[in-house]
Amino acid sequence: MRANIRGVLWCTIWCYCLASSQANLYKGYKVYELPASKARSANLDFMLSQLANNRTYYDIYTSGSQTGAPAHIMVHPEAQPQFVALLNEQAVNYKIINNDVGHTLRSNYERNQMLRNLYPFEGRLSTERYYTHDEITQYIENLAQLYPSRVFIRTVGRTYEGRWLKTIRITNGDRRANKNVILMDGGFHAREWISPAAVVYAIGELVENYETYADLLLDYDWVILPVVNADGYVYTHLSENTRMWRKTRQPSSESCIGTDPNRNFDFHWNEEGASQDPCDETYAGPKAFSEPEAIVVRDLIKSYAKVGKMYLTLHSYGPYILYPWGWTLDVPDTVEDLHEVAQAGYEAMFNATGVEYEIGPSTEVLYVAAGASDDYAFNAGFPISFTMELPPGGQSLFDPPASDIDGLVKEAWIGILAMARKVVEKYPLA
Ligand code: 0X9
Ligand code: ZN
User: Fold this and answer.
1) What mean pLDDT is predicted for residues 235-249?
2) How far is the CA of 279 from the centre of ligand 1 (A)?
């Protein structure tokens, strides 16, 4: 009995400590919005690059685009007075777009838990809530069982923590081999939840409404890996304090965990825009392809290098459609083809909802970042290779509220469809 009471007491204290330490992690953090990079002074740019080194106090969510999108920076409560003083000194117009990140993450976490209870997984997925890696895997396996002549699952590897990664290949069931391929993935960066959500929506459309997309499945198969960085994705579902995780989960040093899977590819690996510091969000890894998840994508890209016509990797947040190169300011000789396909996506989405995705070479729209999967796929032979960054949402930006999922993924699908149609027209079966 006494042991029992002691146990209950211990648990109460431990649980309280755990809960309160969890509740405090992002308490009082604010997100500031600064002008887009083209509108910034060299001084301000230098200041931002210095702040980025101070990880304890600053998290540069996005440094803003060259063409219009503003920068977003999350700042620790203790650094806020100094940060604001710096901005005032430089006469920078800033806006606070989130007053308490901890509060936002907590309420989003609670809402997501509530939605999970309200909409339990029953084999099918909808756009009512975000789904877990297990649910997404189960869903694609169910589709393969329901449509065994058209849909095929392949286990393509394992994550660092041992989760199986599976692709779904969607065909029209005519059993013709050697068709062209559109390769698509999501969930490279753990916190970008809208990416797997959009991939799942695309899968549902292609499989369940396949008659509508007969033209896209006649000479093409679609091969899709919904969540590349499954360990990271699972981690972001654990609590509000882990929600903003980006990297993989393999330890990178004694004190830090994770490599940026989108800096880990062996094409200009560890060059500009990739960090050598294991604690950084853009750590390139101890060597190229140190991450099993990047190896899985590499092998997919290689195995479809001859027949693959479009590689599409979904991220957030933009909205951008980015094409190579991402490692250099140079543009490829075929830039017009890339632009033509991206333009088709842009126009379709603009006409549907009025959204304006910025389109262009990664380095021109955004920044130089070497060692990413889009450049690797383009170099391997995919004539079209895009990083599509879906729009931000909600107050924590990486976390559009569940009520926004439907609109965002349907809008993205309209763009993906238009790009796929252009690809099918430009690259008929050889
Ligand atoms: O930095 C990235 O990996 C991508 N942006 S994100 O905010 N989702 O992290 C952009 C990658 C663009 N492609 C290349 N630079 N190659
Ligand atoms: Zn990303």
Assistant:
1) 96
2) 18
Q: Is residue 189 part of a domain?
A: yes
- Ligand closest to 325 (CA) is 1
> How much is the pLDDT for 165?
98
> Ligand 2 centroid to 318 CA: how many Å?
10
Identify whether 74 is part of a domain.
yes
Tell whether ligand 1 has an atom less than 6 A from the beta carbon of residue 262: yes
| In contact, 317 and 325? CB cutoff 8 Å | no
- Give the ligand 1 atom nearest the CA of 371: 16
> What domain range is 77 assigned to?
2-99
Query: What is the percent of the chain with per-residue pLDDT over 70, rounded to a whole number?
Result: 94
Q: Is the CB of 389 under 6 A from ligand 1?
A: yes
H helices present in 97-169, as ranges: 101-118, 133-146
Q: What is the CATH number of the domain that holds 294?
A: 3.40.630.10
Residue among 322, 359, 397 whose CB has most ligand 1 atoms within 8 A, to mutate? 322
Q: Using CA atoms, how far apart are residues 78 and 203, in angstroms rounded to an integer?
A: 45
Both tokens assigned to 292: 């099993």
Buried b (16+ CB within 10 A) or exposed e, 292-318: bbbbbbbebbeebbebbbbbbbbbbbb
Beta carbons of 297 and 228 less than 8 angstroms apart = yes
- Across the chain, mean pLDDT equals 93
Mean pLDDT confidence for 212-220: 97
Is residue 148 domain-shared with residue 267, that is, in the same domain?
Answer: yes
Asked if the structure places residue 118 within a domain, the reply is no
Ligand nearest to the CA of 364: 1
Predicted TM-score (pTM) above 0.85: yes
In this structure, which residue's CA is closest to atom 14 in ligand 1?
326
CATH number of the domain within which 91 lies:
3.30.70.340
Structural domain total, the chain: 2
| Cα(100)–Cα(118) distance, integer angstroms | 27
**Residue 95: beta bridge partners?**
33
Task: Among the bound ligands, name the one nearest to the CA of residue 264.
Answer: 1
Evaluate: CB of 65 within 6 angstroms of ligand 1.
Answer: no
Which residues are catalytic, by number?
389
User: Is the residue at 108 inside a domain?
Assistant: no
My answer on whether 134 and 200 are in the same domain is: yes
Q: What is the pLDDT of residue 16?
A: 40
Q: Whose CA is nearest to atom 13 of ligand 1?
A: 326
